[in-house]
Write the structure tokens for this entry.
Amino acid sequence: MSCPLFDHARPHEVGSVQPVERRPLLDAVREFVQAARRGDYYQDFMVNSHNCTDKSAGTQTFEAQLDLLFDRCIDEAASGEPAQVVAAYELLLDLLREIDRFERDDIVFFADEGGTWQFGINWKRVLPPYIKCLAKVVERDECERQTKAVIDAFVDEWQRREVRRLAAE
């Protein structure tokens, strides 16, 4: 006899136990960038003095998806194809540059003082794997030029030396 209070589901008895096949990184990034440029994450709200630091659900979803994709880039930088990893990074970085140029305001919504700085991206974690993969696919001078450009674009001045050091390790 079984007591209902102690019954529980076993993982093999609930739902599909087949592993979900993960889409290739570059395909996932392309889809995300296309969705962002279509305005899929854009959601505004009436801003006032009480909510001027809030983020819309769409902007929060964008940020979470961006974080997941950067995590995948970092993971695949260690064992994946460097050219594919660089291409994925560059798509994400180009999207962030587009947001920071403020030429379009329909990608994400910022209630006040917008910019990708609001996403709190840990560039010391995100950029070194990109730079290491970049060094494997472009000539040294080009790598140095692109490294300087991306660091100057996204990293606060006080952290730049640290990011360069981490990338050189």
User: Anything to note?
Assistant: Residues 75 and 129 are 9 Å apart (CA to CA). The helical segments are 25-38, 57-79, 82-101, 123-137, 140-154, 160-168. Residues 57-79 form the longest helix (23 residues). The chain has a mean pLDDT of 83.
